[in-house]
Each structure stands twice: as structure tokens, then as C-alpha cells.
Amino acid sequence: MTTILGIDIGGTGIKGAPVDLERGELSEDRLRIPTPEGGSPGDVARVVAEVAAHFDVDGPIGCTFPAVIRRGVALTAANVDNAWIGNDAQALFTGETGRPVTVVNDADAAGLAEMQYGAGKGRSGTVVMLTLGTGIGSAVFTDGRLVPNTEFGHLDIRGKAAERRASEKAREDHDLSWERWAQRLNEVLTHLEALLWPDLFVVGGGVSKKHDQFLHLLETRAEVVPAQLLNQAGIVGAALAARGRA
Ligand code: BGC
């Protein structure tokens, strides 16, 4: 059995657990520590090390981060501290934990997990995964292969970023009915369909557990299915991303 520690860094919590990669499941209860106020690189790295030390699993670690990540370096900071821009998160976490860490974008990680074990399993063609949470994250797969760092949450929709209109946070902040919010989400999906012509949309993120409230309101050419791994997708995908280093 290959077990790798996966850590999912979000705006409010840093969650980790060992992942059984044969089954795509957590092999122990996850540990969640609130993201330190301000979310500075040094403070986040200390929590990552604390999560790593909590579990009796050694070897490489996979870690998600909610920004564009190229070769371990964060290049954007839409919902995180600006100090992350240009920061080599991978080197920072490797130094702090003393273990090889692989860092990937959070939505890419969730997509990897869904393609391997969940809603996208066995699906060929173009699959677009969207994670609807504080922002909107995206992951695109062509015949199962990830095209990393797509940022469809920042697609401009009538002068405003898609994630400001149609994230789960936007729904809550503006107290939108499911119908109103689904209308906004439809606008985003229609844009994406015009650009990518996907075969399948996988809708993930916190709101995906309430999919029966809104999935039937979505009007797309492509099939839309809810994510299956729910709040474990990031942790599982992080571990998958680190698998090559085991
Ligand atoms: C970030 C993405 C991230 C998404 C979900 C966006 O604001 O730009 O990199 O995947 O939020 O966390």
C-alpha cells in the first residue's frame, strides 16, 4: 500500500491526512488547523510542518495552494497574502518540514483526485472541473492529462471576475437564491463552453454537497456531474501529485 501525506491549504483552514493511494481514501482522520491570520508564507509553512509532524507517515508530502504554481513557485495571490507572489512555496515547505514537498494548485489537485477516483474516472475527451468555494478554481483534463494552472475563476464576465459573481462565497455574501446563483453560474459555464467545448463539467468545492439544489438549474451542452470526493479531494489530489517522488 502506498500511503502519502496530503495537505490542503485553504484561506480558512490547513487540512492534512495520510492518503491510501490504492483506494483514494484517507487512511486516518484528517487534522485541521485554522490558517494563521494574514496567511504569511512563514506562518503557513509552520502550520504545514505541524500537520506533517502530527502523522506517523514519512516520505514525500503533497501540498495544495490556492494560486498559480509553476515549479513550486506561487505566481498569483487572488485570495491570499500578496507576499506569496514569487515565493518558492515548495522550497519553503521542504525546508520547514525537512521532507520533499510537491506543491500544486488546489483546483488542479482536486481535479487529479476526481479523475483518478471520482466523478471523472475513466472519462476521456475534455473534462473541466470547477471548484466553487471562496474563489472559483479550475482544472482541465484532455484524455485524462491535466493542463495545469488554468484560472477560469478570473474569466471576465461583464467587467467582473467570474469568481466574484458565482463562487460559493458570492452566493452567501449576496444572499442569492439558488436560482439567481445558478443563473450566474450558467453565464460562467456558457463562456467556458464557447471557448473549450468540454465533454464533461465536474462541479466541486464546498457547495457540491448541496448539488441537488442547483445542478438541475444548469443549462449546458456538456454533461454536468457533482464531484464525489467532497472535502477530501484536495488532500487526496495533493498526495497523488507527490506520488512520483515516493
Ligand atoms: C485562484 C486559483 C485557485 C482558486 C480556488 C482563485 O482565486 O486564483 O489559483 O485555484 O481561487 O482556490
**Total count of domains:** 2
Q: How many helices in DSSP terms?
A: 7
Q: How many angstroms does the end-to-end distance come to?
A: 12 Å
Kindly state the percentage of residues in helix: 25-40%
| CATH level-four homologous superfamily name of the largest domain | ATPase, nucleotide binding domain
Helix- and strand-based class?
alpha/beta
CATH topology of the largest domain: Nucleotidyltransferase, domain 5
Q: What is the overall pLDDT average?
A: 97
Beta percentage is 25-35%
Residue ranges: pLDDT <50 for 5 or more in a row?
A: none
Give the ordered list of helices and strands: EEEEHEEEHEHEEEEEHHHEEH
What's the alpha carbon Rg, rounded to whole Å? 17 Å
Walk me through this protein's architecture:
With 246 residues, this protein is an alpha/beta fold. The chain folds into two domains: 3-108 and 232-245, ATPase, nucleotide binding domain (Nucleotidyltransferase, domain 5, 2-Layer Sandwich), CATH 3.30.420; 122-227, ATPase, nucleotide binding domain (Nucleotidyltransferase, domain 5, 2-Layer Sandwich). The protein has seven helices and 15 strands. Strands 1, 2, 3, 4, 5 and 8 form a six-stranded mixed β-sheet that branches. A five-stranded mixed β-sheet has the order 11-10-9-14-15. A two-stranded antiparallel ribbon has the order 6-7. Helix 1 packs across helix 2 and helix 3 (106-117) packs across helix 7. Beta-D-glucopyranose binds next to helix 3.
